[in-house]
Amino acid sequence: MRVAVLDSKMGCASHRIDLIRTIAILMVIILHAAIETDPIVAQMTQASVWHWWTENIYNSLARPCIPLFVMLSGSLLLQPSKIEPLGEFFRKRFNRIGLPFLFWGTAYFAWRFLVNHEALSSSSILQGILTGPYYHFWFLYALVGLYLITPILRVIVAYADRKTLGYFILLWFLGVAIVPLLSLSGTYSLDGNVFVILGWIGYYLLGVYLLP
User: Fold this and answer.
1) Quick one: three-class SS letters along 119-183?
2) Domain range list for the chain
3) SS3 assignment, position 155
4) Is the pTM of this model over 0.85?
5) Which residues lie below 8 Å from residue 20, measured CB to CB, with a gap of 6+?
6) pLDDT digits (tens, 9 = 90+) for 60-79
7) Residue 137 CB coordination number (10 Å)
8) pLDDT tens by residue, 82-134
9) How many whole angstroms separate alpha carbon 80 and alpha carbon 147?
10) How far apart are CA 195 and CA 199, in angstroms?
């Protein structure tokens, strides 16, 4: 009976994960379809202004796509039950993103050389490897950073209580949202060094924190 209940819960969780992943994929498509260069609104016709605002609305609605993907990764990789040696963990991660990076990195370098007629040198290729051969690769580098810290976060999640994890996420939210917003007011600002928990790590932990 207990096994059947656990299988049922895992099946429901799998369906929810697939649904969130599907929504995030659709959001990515909408986001890229709604991205256009920003025109000078004052020089546009009324119809063009409405078109511009429509693009902005769709663009804004689709922005949660990447946070959803990061939260999904956190919910799947940071569960306390995920116990494995470092070597095994990084081998799996390399198979997931390392091999695709090698394939698509080579493809984009070839595109830059054959289609864009860019004169590639050893220096530009090395720089392309360090920062990505094309700007879309930023997401892979963000995943690498999250994967590097995952073994440490697994220990934290396994032994920290829910209040401590919530406190961690609160500090992250203050650092990435409230402090920058305060600086935009133009009246007051707080030294950003007060908050060292920044980047995508908050979404990553939030994914496992929101698990039932």
Assistant:
1) CCCHHHHHHHHHHCCCHHHHHHHHHHHHHHHHHHHHHHHHHCCHHHHHHHHHHHHHHHHHHHHHH
2) 1-63
3) helix
4) no
5) 68, 72
6) 999 999 999 999 999 999 98
7) 17
8) 888 999 999 999 988 888 999 999 999 999 999 988 888 999 899 989 998 88
9) 16
10) 11
